[in-house]
Amino acid sequence: MVMGLSVQGVKIRRVYSDGREEHRDDEVAEDVPVCLFVNGEPYRTLIASPGMVEELAVGHLYTEGFISSLGEVVELAVKPNRVDVTLGREINTFETQMATYRLLTTACGEAPSGGSKLQRVSPGVGFDPTLIRTLIKALNDRSSVFKATGGTHSAILHAGSKDFFAEDVGRHNALDKVIGAGLMDGVDFSGCVLGSSGRLAGEMVLKAVRAGVPVVFSVSAPLLSGIRVAEGAGVTLVGFVRGNRMNVYTQP
């Protein structure tokens, strides 16, 4: 067990290009199904790393647009491989998922019906390359499961005086976990900076937009959809944060 995540030992046979073989002990990251139930109805099964499942559930519902605040959650019950979330209102999961589709396609230049509009993010904090370099170092230093297995992604949410960190087998899950942790801690997302080890596609940036995070960065690359969502929402998007350089793709 590393950093609250399960790392399992396995036996492997390593094969070299010169024909040599050797038997070795290795470690792999564990992934488990986490079934989310909303108001007693099955909503979605996430394949995730063990740990921080409450934060995952809350963060996922928040970044997917199902809830707009923690106050909408009446009860949260964690069971083996399952989280039951009770909201104080009825929700239509199909309509919410379609709204996400309309937001993404609108941001990418299409004009679907439904009147969805990408919200603008309040610029509570600006682009600070020194801070981003510090955070990417913290993200890399704390990614102990990745160092042991090579099988996880990481995310970090900088909220002024405190940072929230998560590792997960899924980059979306890691992002949901840190945003969920921030939401449960009552942070003001407009003053936050969000970092990821994974590529920044449109649906990843949209999670930050829904939370109201104005600066998003990654050690990896953005995709065109991520750049267009960032442009439409007024988010500063930074990629390839490595060593002494980084690429700024959008900046309001």
Please explain how this structure is put together.
This protein is of the alpha/beta class. It has a domain at 129-250: Cytidine Deaminase, domain 2. Helices cover 32% and strands 32% of the residues. The chain contains seven helices and twelve strands. The protein has helices spanning 53-63, 93-107, 129-142, 144-149, 171-185, 202-211, 224-233; strands at 7-15, 21-29, 32-38, 41-48, 73-79, 82-87, 153-159, 162-168, 193-196, 215-218, 236-242, 245-250. Helix 1 (53-63) crosses helix 5 (171-185). The longest helix is centred in the middle third of the chain and has 15 residues, at 93-107. 42% of the residues are buried.
Features:
single chain, 252 residues, alpha/beta, Cytidine Deaminase, domain 2, six-stranded mixed beta sheet, 7 helices, 32% helix, 32% strand, globular
Q: Portion of residues in helices?
A: 25-40%
Structural class: alpha/beta
- Can you list the strand order of the major beta sheet? 8-7-9-10-11-12
Global morphology: globular
The total of helices stands at 7
Named CATH topology of one domain: Cytidine Deaminase, domain 2
Q: What gyration radius follows from the Cα positions, in whole Å?
A: 19 Å
Q: What is the name of the CATH class of one domain?
A: Alpha Beta
**Beta-strand residue percentage:** 25-35%
Distance between termini? 42 Å
Extended strand count: 12
What does the average pLDDT come to?
90
Concise account of the structure shown:
The protein has helices at residues 53-63, 93-107, 129-142, 144-149, 171-185, 202-211, 224-233, and strands spanning 7-15, 21-29, 32-38, 41-48, 73-79, 82-87, 153-159, 162-168, 193-196, 215-218, 236-242, 245-250. The chain has 252 residues and is α/β, with parallel strands linked by helices.
